[in-house]
Write a structure and sequence with these properties.
- By secondary structure, the chain is mainly α.
- It has two domains: 398 residues, Growth Hormone, Chain: A, CATH 1.20.1250; 49 residues.
- The longest helix is centred in the N-terminal third of the chain and has 36 residues.
- The protein is globular.
- The two termini are 27 Å apart.
């Protein structure tokens, strides 16, 4: 599959799919206060509406990336789109909070199948000289999803109710299904015939569940025990993966490439420090500032719009300058943006919030495309699926941890109650503490980004 037409079809399919997941995440964030009111759920349970989706995606990304390398990336991508589209339809008619959270988990499995294969298909089709530009376009789609999510999510929630957000995703899913089945030619399975590591995949999934559920239970002792089990599980997982013949996660890829290892660590830190920004500000703007979902969405759009505009430029730049330099500059700008958000209180102006978000958007753009380029350019062709899935896992594990940190802070400062006016003061303290932790994390991330070494 080398013709210009085939490349365009692959880029279109991967780009549309890359739009879906971030659009879903950012639009649902805006709808959270409305969902909380309809089902009368506390702050911690409300966090699980986002966390269950992220957890499922993070759990299954690496296993499905590996399965795609063995059985075909297009095949797994196709099944993922189908699961995602059906779950969106079911989510739109959820009768309870428990059903909603369970279906979000199913939606996350579909999302894992899409995200674990989309970038790998692109990397298979585009040669090194053109790859940065293609990945830049792909990242732009991610940021367009993030941009339109708050705006459309706010508009839909205000005028048609939060369920309409899930309905809107159905025709988009069907469009991608059409292109995949009738227009996307070829198949990619560079690890065909190799075995799938079921034991490693199971350990890996349980590790993520233990850590995430443990975070939500803190400060209770049972939460601490679960996190400890998760940490021990990580050690068991690494030991197993170094001994098994066909590992789900090739630990050697980390050992053999400093660039690969530190680029992934930088991604993990970056997303751990930044993902909950949209989640926290959505609640802050609607609870403290009294904005409608639509108005809150318009404010939050300022960050991803900047990301969408500057990502292709950052991708292009990383084809010409060492990716670590561009990405580290992005991480530094993000740190400054997060430190500014620690100053939030009930009197903070909307102009200050928008300015901080613009700075974050620029930082994200300069970090994401170059970092992706560094990861994918540091491995052999047969590891593209796994490398893509590992990077996606770092992103989603980081996002899951980010929400986990927010949940933990809510549990400590607010408790398991609905966020009503009498709890606004502890809510504001929670937001300040969260941004202090995130800014310090991102500061550490600058050093992880700088020490990665050279790609070229």
């Amino acid at each position: 599959m080398n013709s210009a037409t085939d490349k365009r079809v692959a880029l279109l399919v991967a780009t549309l799919a890359s739009f879906l997941a971030p659009f879903m995440i950012s639009s649902v964030n805006i709808a959270l206060p409305s969902i909380g009111i309809e089902f009368a759920i506390d702050a911690v349970l409300l966090s699980w509406v986002t966390a269950s989706y992220l957890l499922a995606t993070a759990m299954f990304l690496v296993p499905f990336g590996r399965i795609a390398d063995i059985y075909g990336r297009k095949r797994i991508f196709s099944y993922g789109i189908l699961i995602y589209t059906v779950s969106c339809l079911l989510l739109a008619i959820s009768p309870s909070a428990v059903t909603l959270i369970s279906l979000r988990f199913l939606e996350g499995i579909g999302s894992a199948m899409i995200l674990g294969t989309g970038i790998a298909i692109l990397t298979s089709v585009f040669p090194i000289g053109e790859r940065g530009k293609a990945l830049g376009i792909n990242v732009t789609a991610v940021y367009l999803g993030l941009s339109l999510g708050p705006f459309l999510g706010g508009f839909l929630t205000q005028h048609l109710g939060w369920r309409s957000i899930f309905f809107v995703n159905v025709p988009l899913g069907l469009t991608i299904i059409f292109f995949v089945f009738w227009k996307l030619k070829g198949e990619w399975a560079e690890a065909k015939g190799e075995k799938f590591d079921f034991t490693g995949s199971t350990i890996y999934s349980f590790v993520l569940i233990a850590v995430m559920y443990g975070l939500s239970l803190l400060p209770a002792m049972s939460g601490a025990w679960l996190i400890l089990i998760g940490v021990l599980g990580i050690l068991a997982f690494v030991k197993w993966e170094t001994r098994v013949e066909s590992p789900v996660l090739n630990i050697g890829v980390f050992r053999n490439s400093r660039v690969f290892a530190f680029s992934n660590l930088a991604a993990l830190i970056n997303y751990s420090a930044t993902f909950a920004v949209g989640f926290l500000l959505s609640l802050y703007l609607q609870y403290i500032k009294g904005l409608t979902p639509q108005s809150a969405g318009l404010i939050l759009v300022s960050q991803p719009v900047i990301q969408a505009v500057f990502s292709p430029f950052a991708g292009w730049l990383s084809d010409r300058i060492e990716p670590r330099i561009v990405a580290s500059m992005g991480m530094a700008l993000t740190t400054i943006g997060l430190f500014l958000l620690t100053l939030l209180n009930e009197k903070t102006t909307l102009e200050f919030i928008v300015s901080s978000l613009i700075l974050l958007g620029l930082g994200f753009a300069l970090f994401s495309s170059p970092n992706t380029n560094a990861v994918m350019s540091s491995v052999e062709k047969k590891f593209y699926g796994v490398a893509s899935a590992i990077l996606g896992t770092m992103r989603l594990t980081g996002q899951t941890l980010s929400i986990g940190i927010a949940m933990l802070i809510f549990a400590i400062y607010i408790g398991r109650v609905q966020i009503t006016p009498e709890y606004y003061q502890p809510f504001l303290i929670s937001v300040e503490v969260a941004f202090i932790i995130f800014a310090i994390l991102c500061l550490i991330g600058i050093f992880a980004s700088l020490v990665r070494g050279k790609v070229r």
